[in-house]
Amino acid sequence: MVKGIWSIFLVLTTTACLLAAGCVTTNSAANNTDAQITFTDLAGREVTLDSRPETIAVGFYIVNYLMVGGDDALDKLVGLAMDSWDGTRYGEYAVFTSTYPKLLEANGEIVNIGSYHDDTLNTEKILQLKPDVLLLSPSQYSANNEQVKTYENAGINVVVIDFNSNTLETHTRSNRILGMLLGKEDVAEEQIAAYTAAVNDITSRLADANVEKKAVYVELGNKGPGDYGNSYSNTMWGSFATQAGGINIADGQIEKYGSLNPEYVIASNPDVIFIGGAIWSGDTNGDQMRMGYTISEETARERLKKFTERPGWNVITAVKEGEVYGIDHGGLRTMIDYVYLQYIAKALYPELFEDLDPQATMEEFYEKYLPDLDYTGTFMIKLDAT
Amino acid sequence: MADRDGAAIYQAIVRKRAIVCIGSLIGLVLLVLADLMIGPSWIPIHDVVTTLFDGPNGETTSTAIVWSVRLPMTFTCIFVGASLGLAGVKVQTICNNPLASPYTLGLTSGAAFGAATAIFTGFSIAGILWLGTAVLAFIFAGGVSLAIYMVGKMKGMSTITIILAGIVMNFFFVALQQLLQYKASAEVAQLIASWTFGSLTRSSWTSVAVSGCILVVCAIFVTRYVWQLTALTTSEENAKSLGVDTESVRLKMFMSASLLTAGAVSFIGTVGFVGLVAPHCARLLVGEDQRYLIPASVIFGSLLMLAASITAKLIGGGSMIPVGIVTSLVGVPALFILLMKTRRWE
Hints:
The complex is a heterodimer of chains A (386) and B (346).
Chain A: H1 2-31, E1 37-40, E2 46-49, E3 56-58, H2 62-76, E4 77-80, H3 85-88, H4 90-99, E5 111-112, H5 123-129, E6 133-136, H6 138-143, H7 145-153, E7 157-160, H8 168-182, H9 185-209, E8 214-220, E9 230-232, H10 236-243, E10 246-248, E11 257-259, H11 262-268, E12 272-277, E13 292-293, H12 297-308, H13 317-320, E14 324-328, H14 338-348, H15 358-369, E15 377-378, E16 380-382
Parallel strand pairs in A: 3-4, 3-6, 4-5, 6-7, 8-10, 8-12, 12-14
Antiparallel strand pairs in A: 1-2, 9-11, 13-15, 14-16
Chain B: H1 2-37, H2 45-54, H3 61-95, H4 107-121, H5 129-154, H6 159-183, H7 186-197, H8 205-223, H9 226-234, H10 236-241, H11 246-268, H12 274-286, H13 290-316, H14 323-341
Helix pairs in contact in B: 1-13, 2-3, 3-8, 3-11, 3-12, 3-13, 4-5, 4-6, 4-7, 4-11, 5-6, 5-11, 6-7, 8-11, 12-13, 12-14, 13-14
């Protein structure tokens, strides 16, 4: 009974805090004269918009854009860089275009302004389209420095956001900008608050617990078991592995990412192994690791198993104890990617994070912010102990 | 008197050649041992030795490392290096041109395009991506050599035609591969790029068996033609007047060189420099006599690959530096030293 009252009190205070946070941001947004919006973007540029944009072209981060803006944002969307979207993130492409047919190039409702993956922008189309705002990733911005001047001369406001760096700070700032542009400050701040709380929770629990650190190996499974794909040191999965309290065996061996020597992997004897999966073009009956939207658990597990059968892996602790996991490589760079941090932390120290349910947290997020989206798929999976 | 002098000189030459061959063979054995002893885990040497004698069925980390990682890599180095050395010496001899190599003739870029196609389309055999990649690489390398041969045959198998056709093929397939790389998504493009670096992480007992078998078969095959090949190095007319069917010899050598190259690069990826450098090193030391040149090229090919593998392991630490990059870094100084020591470039 006492516990029940206590939890009601907790819920009430949390709600109050969230409301207060919402008010604060509304106030700060109001500091911008009525409609004017001013902020510093993720390339460090001062951006001032006279009014909230009516039309937006998205060079990158369409998923983040919709997560903050929902259906309203879809109405504002006039252009999207979508060449090879299907080849790069097939699952994401399939799910988003079927949920939001507007995103299909063939439907002709929005203009294709460039490439999804290699920073190529179609300047002519962008100038012709003349959106109020053009959203770019940092690499699109640096690869198209000269063109950006042309866009701005034509009256297009270029805004750079960054979800690729995968840090709390860049995620927060980028999401806040999306909120301002889309008039969804409350949604943006809510997502930021949840993200911050989740990251801080993991850090503080680890700091208090004083656990014996476990060795982690993370590999991108795009080469299949026959060859060793990239591992990551202080970036992407590598930084998650460290934040989750693991000792990343790739640290100090590679700059950012690269393949590790098979002998080094075996000799390092990791306690836990994560293999990143996705749907890479063409691969239907192959052995590349598959994860993400549209992928069944069965397929993911089947593919994951083959990695554990690599020559010499029988002696690795993680393999012997079934501590081998699949994670969706496309899951990074969104405001819900902290569930992977939680997942890795829980895999490493199950007793410490027993109450966390990353899968459920992710599902709630989708239900709340993208209720129409059919997010069926496999995003995090454990290979059952053999 | 003059006769005896001639015989003495010949004997001295033969002795020198034999010493070079035996010396490099000893060097090969030493490098094989070094390659087996060196690795990022630095297992003590006596552990490596006992693990080798204990066989592949242990459950220890040393067994896994020595039998599943180091041995396949070492054997791959030996066979790939030897195959490329042999292919290189054959191509140089039949083209009568020191610049010819499996690489300049487009065989390697054909293989790379085949591999890129497999990676791009996700082509796999029996559900295994690397096997699909290797098989397509093999088919394309073979296709390129057939095409060059057809062109050569129409134009009487003249050396200039063969080389020109090869260079054209090279550009063509490099462009095709770049097109695929451009069209592919970032992660797939990175896969294609990494294939073209030639990495020992792709070696396995299967690749060892395939490249080893091809090497042995082709090596035995070529021994039947050493005299014809030696005659061919003097000049086309000389060889013909000695009764050599030059066109047929060129065809056979060319096709077996393609097979060797395909077998070597299909599994581990492009290794460019060995096919060019190994025969030159050998030629500088033993001369044109094919009876010595061929085995010396084969040994030098293996030596280069092993030296590259050891270097990569020493500088790489826990990361895997692609051996294809290191072969050039090791091969260039080796060739330069030999060039400087030899008075004259033939």
